[in-house]
Every structure is written in C-alpha cells, then in structure tokens.
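Hi support team,

I've been running sequence recovery on a batch of backbones for a student project. Most finish fine, but this one hangs at about 90% for roughly twenty minutes before it completes. I'm not sure whether the input is malformed or the queue is just slow. I've pasted the structure tokens below so you can try to reproduce it. Let me know if you need the job ID as well.

Thanks,
M.K.
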C-alpha cells in the first residue's frame, strides 16, 4: 500500500520497502562515520553481523521495530530522529524510484 504525503514542497510516497532501504543506507552511513564494522555494531546491540548487513541493505524481513532502531541509534551515538528524517535530496531519490 502506498500513501502520498506532502512534505514541504515535495510529495513523498510512503512505500514501505523504500523506507527500509533508505533507513538501512542511513544506518550504514552513520556506522561508517562512527568507524565501526558491522561486527562491532552487532556486538554493541547484541545481534549478528548478518542482521546488520540485512538491515543496511534493505533486506531485513523481520519486523524492524522501534526498539531495535533505538538500540542502533544509541550504539552509533546518533539522535534517533536523525535516522528517520529525510532531506530534500533523499526525498527526490525516493520519489524517482517509486
């Protein structure tokens, strides 16, 4: 199910798969900035490297729940809301792929 929301001047589709892909890319970005490997992040959140890889690549089939996202944000020393905020460039990429 796709819904469209107007965010500023840009219309954004809330396709769930795209949300998961962009969120995964953000996690990979913040992890890289923190100088952590997928293994190191996995240890910090009591998970596995395979799970981190799936999340970062938008292939995590289980529920990507708020608790897990908060744990990842805390492990990366990133404000949780930064992971869920999409800038204009990201919104345009999102809309091009839908």
């Amino acid at each position: 199910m796709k819904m469209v929301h107007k965010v500023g001047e840009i219309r954004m589709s809330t396709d769930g798969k795209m949300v998961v892909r962009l969120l995964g890319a953000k996690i990979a970005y913040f992890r890289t900035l923190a100088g952590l490997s997928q293994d190191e992040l996995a240890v910090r959140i009591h998970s596995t490297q395979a799970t981190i890889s799936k999340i970062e690549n938008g292939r995590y089939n289980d529920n990507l729940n708020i608790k897990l996202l908060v744990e990842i944000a805390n492990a990366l020393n990133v404000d949780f809301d930064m992971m869920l905020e999409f800038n204009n460039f990201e919104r345009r990429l999102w809309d091009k792929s839908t």
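--
Follow-up from support: It reproduced on our side and the slowdown came from queue contention, not your input. DSSP finds six helices and two strands in the chain. No action needed from you.
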